[in-house]
Amino acid sequence: MNTDNTKSQMRKGMLEYCIMLLLRQQPCYANDIIQKLHEADMIVMEGTLYPLLSRLKRDGLLGYEWRESTQGPPRKYYVLTDDGHEALAQLDASWEEILRTVNILKS
Amino acid sequence: MNTDNTKSQMRKGMLEYCIMLLLRQQPCYANDIIQKLHEADMIVMEGTLYPLLSRLKRDGLLGYEWRESTQGPPRKYYVLTDDGHEALAQLDASWEEILRTVNILKS
DNA sequence: TTAAGTACCTTGCGATACAAGGTATTCATA
DNA sequence: TATGAATACCTTGTATCGCAAGGTACTTAA
Question: Which end of chain A is more exposed for a tag (fewer CB within 10 A), N or C?
């Protein structure tokens, strides 16, 4: 059975949205994001996260700043840019649309 | 801006779920599915749908039967198998989990 | 017999999640 | 001072999947 595969497929496209939702609330560095998404029942791997953050940065949706850590090397804290907030608003709309679609199909 | 791309990414993983939701209600052939999903605000292309249906069939989640058409060649009507219903129930759970995740991240 | 419509399917491409592996910095300890 | 562990960032290779484009086959009507 490929249910696990499908399940991960369902989560796939949601990742970018979820990460931006998280960053809307507070700046985070990679391990923050992994942990907080995990607490919200969404698993994300390092090898997935770093390229995704780089892409969002390259597209101008995220910025970052280095912050010293009390333990270990400095951390890259990512923040939503203005463009990022704008894009996220559109993704909110897309999410509502998906909600609507699923509700229609379930009714 | 890559919002359109992200939007389609968000829909990506949902397609399989939406198609199975649709088939839970009634047997459909390809053009039925495309049209009904369209009515529910979800766009799906032929080149996407056929391989997906074949895969679900191969995995034993769907079956099909040929039915004559009053206009044109016969149609392949797909139906959920018992395994399909079972898998769909698990996807329902996954969907609830994603709902929960997004709600947590939005709060 | 030919053209249009309908239906099913395949191929090639781009995007992306993931596993595995790699580099660099910090700090504690031998 | 040297070394090992912990932390943090990043890259590479693979598999999967949606999509655009193109192809095959059957039916009906002109």
Answer: C
Say if pTM beats, i.e. exceeds, 0.90: yes
Regions of chain B where pLDDT drops below 70: 1-2
Interatomic CA distance for residues B2 and A87, integer angstroms:
8
- Please tell me what DSSP assigns to residue A68: -
DSSP state of A53: H
Q: Which residues of A touch B37 (CB under 8 A)?
A: 101
pLDDT at B33: 98
Predicted pLDDT of residue B1: 45
Q: What backbone phi and psi angles, to 5 degrees, belong to B47? A: -65, -15
Tell me which residues of chain B have a C-beta less than 8 Å from any C-beta of chain A.
1-3, 6-14, 16-18, 21-22, 25, 37, 39-42, 59, 83, 87, 90-91, 94-95, 97-98, 100-102, 104-106
Neighbour-count burial for A47-74, b at 16+ CB within 10 Å, e otherwise:
eebeebbeebbebebbbeeeeeeeeeee
Q: How many CB atoms lie within 10 A of CB B53?
A: 20
